[in-house]
Amino acid sequence: MSRNFGKVLLSLAIPALIIAVSLVAPANADQAVRLQYRTSAPGATTAQAEPWLQLYNDGTTTIPLNQVKVRYYLTGTETYRFACSWAVVGCSTVTGQFVRQQGDGQYLEVGFTSGSLAPGRTTGDMQLRFYRADWQTFTQGDDYSYGPQTSYANWDKVTVYVNGTLAWGRPNGSDPDPDPDPTVTPGPGGELFDDFTYTGSNDPRLAQRGWTVRSSSGGPGVPGATWSPGAVSFPGGLLTLDSSTNGTPSGTVQTELSTTNRKFHEGTYAARVRFSDAPTSGPDGEHVVQTFFTITPLRFDLDPDYGELDFEYLPNGGWGEPSNILYATSWETYRNEPWQAVNTHTEERASFAGWHDLVIQVSGGRMKYYVDGRLFADHGDVYYPETPMWIMFNQWFIDLQGASGARTYRQQVDYVYHSKNEVLSPAEVQSRVGALRSSGAAFKDTVPNV
């Protein structure tokens, strides 16, 4: 990032002071907002900028934080990713997006989904960070809002807006939209529903309806394992994945069903999934992964357009876990060799054997994961998916334990549902699915291809 700034010499100190005071004056005297700034990455060149902020309410009325926007001004047109490392108000309530200005400027706009700031109170630390999407180092020393100080002090080069009106600071550059709204426009943009009433993995309707039963080799899972369409079946209208192993790579069968078109992005995803703790046959103990997820392909190491939203159940542990664990994981990107994962996850160490209603809401920079109507995880920020995804179910083995004798693990799915550009509660999903089934619909797909 680089920009040549012209230096303006003001000949009269008093007019300059008047201008500065007018620019930092609060929009409403009853709502006197003040911002303090420091950085934990003071170098002019960095791999990651780390502006830490805290807001003060010096006024007499409480300010709803969802009316507040904070802007940190940058130089250059590079693509950046935002993250909240820690915040007193909770990172789950803090949002961030980058807004392009005219010319070669942009700003990071930080907002809040909930909370309030009472008179005389402060938000406390908001430890924020951002980095280039290609993970290259960059120069922050020429950014308008940057300062090298490592202790908190009032800082008017970061602005604060309340209800779209400037309440603190001196803006920089063009300001095309005082309050951009990052949320998804309400209302459905099409639905996908499948009740999985197929005769088998070779049923021609699967391909006609946009499904692919995997047969190609490769990850995830045990190198040398087979992905077998023959191990995918639909007894009683249930997608059934039977993955098995005899303890050797050549004797290992993994299973996967995926949408053919990568056309799913914001909206609501849902499925009723049956996880299992024990194999249907043979000795137990394998590190098997049972899943429902969405994914974008990784084009190259640390691809910034990669995205993945996972429910993953490990009945026998794995990845260093000793026993049952359910993960909800949101991915920004990764590199295979040497391994580098850029993700965030929420986990619960308990048995989830049996049927469960799983829902993922993707909207407004947040991904909310629900299990049986209960909020299980709330992720966002840099991990928010940027591109359309496939919907997938698979069951695979992390590694092999070497026990003798064949064993088979089973995962089943009752239905899958997606509503594009619409946030539905778990109860609303159940109502939609119930109405589709009552109408006799076994399959519906009105989600447009992209």
Provide structural commentary.
The chain is built from 3 helices and 31 strands. With 450 residues, it is mostly beta strands. It has 2 domains: 27-168, Immunoglobulin-like (Sandwich), CATH 2.60.40.710; 191-445, Sandwich (Jelly Rolls), CATH 2.60.120. A hairpin with a 4-residue loop joins strand 7 and strand 8. The longest helix has 13 residues, at 426-438. The chain is elongated and about 70 Å long. Residues 1-27 form the signal peptide.
Q: Which helices and strands appear, and what pairs or packs with what?
A:
Layout: H1 13-24, E1 33-39, E2 45-46, E3 51-57, E4 63-64, E5 68-75, E6 80-87, E7 94-100, E8 105-112, E9 116-117, E10 126-132, E11 138-139, E12 153-154, E13 158-162, E14 165-168, E15 191-194, H2 204-208, E16 211-213, E17 226-227, E18 232-233, E19 239-245, E20 253-259, E21 267-275, E22 288-295, E23 308-314, E24 325-335, E25 340-348, E26 354-363, E27 366-371, E28 374-380, E29 390-397, E30 407-420, H3 426-438, E31 443-445
Parallel strand pairs: 17-20
Antiparallel strand pairs: 1-3, 1-12, 2-11, 3-10, 4-9, 5-8, 5-13, 6-10, 7-8, 13-14, 15-30, 15-31, 16-20, 18-19, 19-30, 20-29, 21-26, 21-30, 22-23, 22-29, 23-24, 24-25, 26-27, 27-28
